[in-house]
Task: inverse folding
């Protein structure tokens, strides 16, 4: 379009339906990604799985 018509306010497009509420997982993922982005590195503790230690039972020790 040319001329003065373009400089007028345009009516705002309104959608019929609102976006449904996100699942908590989706919301959390979005928040986490936002938090992680940018400078500052890892922001939440990374879970390091510990090695399982098994105590030698008394039944094994009696054989020797």
Result:
């Amino acid at each position: 379009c040319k001329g003065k018509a373009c400089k007028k306010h345009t009516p705002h497009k309104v959608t019929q339906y609102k976006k449904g509420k996100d699942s908590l997982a989706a919301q959390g993922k979005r928040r986490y990604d936002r938090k992680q982005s940018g400078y500052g590195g890892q922001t939440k503790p990374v879970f390091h799985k510990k090695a399982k230690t098994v105590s030698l039972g008394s039944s094994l020790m009696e054989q020797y």
Summary: The chain has a mean pLDDT of 79. The two ends are 95 Å apart (CA to CA). The helical segments are 24-36, 58-61.
